[in-house]
Please model this.
Amino acid sequence: MIAKTLFVGIGSPHGDDQAGWHVADALVDRLQASPIALSGGATAGSNSPVRPQSQLVVRKARSPADVLDWIKGIDRLVICDACRSSGPPGSAYRWTWPDPAIEQTHCSGSHDMGLASVLALAQRLHSLPPAVIVWGLEAENPQLQDDLSASRFSTSVATRVAEIVNSIWSDLVHA
Model:
């Protein structure tokens, strides 16, 4: 049976709120460069058939609420969003739902409904996949929500994108 994984990068084109979108783009690039890694397929010259283990769908969202429309039939949900908590800019967090830290961390941007609220709603509706991983990337600009005109992606956040992509990819390949 093929496990279906949905990765959602939440964000906007503004400042550090772009983090989730950058991770999504990098995952698409990685998937296009190495699709066999997720399929569990045979290596070149091998006689064994390709037996897909995982199907990965990568999407971008402006709001966590978008996830509600996409989770039907999904076995694993992985989300990445910029956030603000008490850590230094560029800090990366990995939580497994349910985790109280998700509720205590403010996701960036002007989302109508917060990520923790969306996941709780999906859980109450019995539509949440069995496995949910949330990645948060600490935004540098503490006024991110109020300054949506800024398009600059901070260096401290940008430098962590590749590291997060590597971690997510490793989780997906070894799941």
